[in-house]
């Protein structure tokens, strides 16, 4: 259908064009095309920030170093390209293989949202639904075509069964590849500013969230201090400044400097800083130097860029694990993606901390 346009020209309307396109494909292949097209549109919405608050935690994760929305745009555009050439000999087998792999990958992404991020992203769920519908429609079209092929019942059954097994294998492969390619946002900046202690190559990462003026943190500190030596021998340990009180920002530059420059004596220095925080809310460089001199340490300030980077890193860790208050400890296995969160004095006993580390550690 066309309507008169400017300068006397007739222009086709978008609605009839899409309708004619869907009719020409047939209902099953039209569902495949519509599912992939809608997934592409949703990925674009996510990329430009048109997403609800629940989606932002997922937005920070990456797949092979690329943020999910941008990877989705490229992937679904590629799928639509394959769909257009699906009748060519090479593409005829490649297209369903890619869709089967995408099915498997979506199972991994759903697992990450449920068990690791622990927050559902509505638009990501909508993308998963689109992929699921496209896969179901494609499978239905395939099995319908196989029924129409000549041959004995046993022969047709074996061909269908072998194809089904192959697609199941591809789904498992897609799930595994997605799992391997997942990137936790908390690890992106830690590599450039070395604030971690302990075993740098360990699978287990332990994040300690405290505020320098938090009364509950001071009460929990003895049990946490008792656990630190054990953690350092088994895992990567990161002390995260999470300022609940504004005055805590006055200690962040000093703490970052000691984390970077004085790793071997950091636990001793930390005790001195905690004692200093009980005496003043605005420490001077002279106060800091006086506190660490008995340990034979000379304070060396970081440049502003490094301090800013450290603060951004701390904020990204807090956001990634959705930590709401202090004190808290998060134990994370970067290989299995298992996570254990301990909140408040009640959780942060010495046995609970060691149990949490053992719970996510490799066997």
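Sequence proposed for the structure above (363 residues):
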């Amino acid at each position: 259908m066309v309507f008169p346009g400017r300068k006397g020209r007739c222009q086709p309307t978008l609605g009839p064009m899409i309708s004619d396109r869907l009719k020409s494909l047939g209902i099953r292949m039209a569902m495949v095309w519509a599912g992939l097209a809608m997934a592409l549109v949703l990925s674009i919405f996510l990329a430009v920030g048109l997403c609800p608050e629940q989606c932002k935690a997922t937005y920070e994760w990456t797949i092979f170093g690329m943020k999910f929305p941008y990877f989705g745009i490229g992937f679904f555009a590629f799928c639509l390209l394959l769909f257009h050439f699906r009748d060519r000999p090479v593409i005829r087998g490649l297209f369903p293989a890619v869709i089967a792999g995408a099915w498997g990958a979506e199972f991994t992404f759903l697992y990450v949202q449920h068990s690791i991020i622990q927050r559902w992203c509505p638009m990501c769920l909508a993308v998963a639904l689109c992929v699921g519908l496209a896969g179901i429609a494609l499978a239905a079209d395939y099995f319908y075509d196989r029924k129409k092929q000549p041959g004995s019942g046993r022969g047709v059954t074996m061909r269908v069964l072998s194809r089904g097994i192959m697609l199941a294998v591809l789904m498992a492969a897609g799930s595994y590849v997605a799992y391997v390619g997942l990137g936790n946002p908390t690890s992106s900046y830690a590599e450039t500013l070395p604030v971690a202690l302990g075993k740098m190559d360990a699978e287990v990462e332990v994040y300690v969230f405290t505020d320098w003026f938090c009364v509950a943190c001071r009460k929990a500190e003895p049990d946490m201090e008792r656990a630190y030596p054990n953690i350092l021998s088994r895992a990567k340990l990161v002390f995260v400044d999470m300022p609940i009180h504004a005055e805590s920002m006055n200690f962040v530059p000093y703490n970052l400097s000691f984390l970077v420059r004085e790793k071997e004596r950091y636990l001793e220095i930390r005790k001195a800083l905690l004692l200093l925080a009980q005496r003043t809310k605005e420490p001077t460089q002279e106060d800091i130097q006086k506190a660490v001199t008995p340990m034979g340490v000379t304070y060396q300030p970081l440049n502003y860029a490094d301090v800013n980077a450290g603060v951004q890193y701390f904020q990204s860790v807090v956001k990634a694990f959705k930590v709401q208050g202090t004190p808290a400890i998060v134990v994370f296995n970067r290989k299995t993606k298992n996570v254990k969160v301990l909140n408040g004095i009640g959780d942060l006993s010495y046995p609970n901390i060691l149990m949490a580390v053992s719970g996510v550690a490799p066997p």
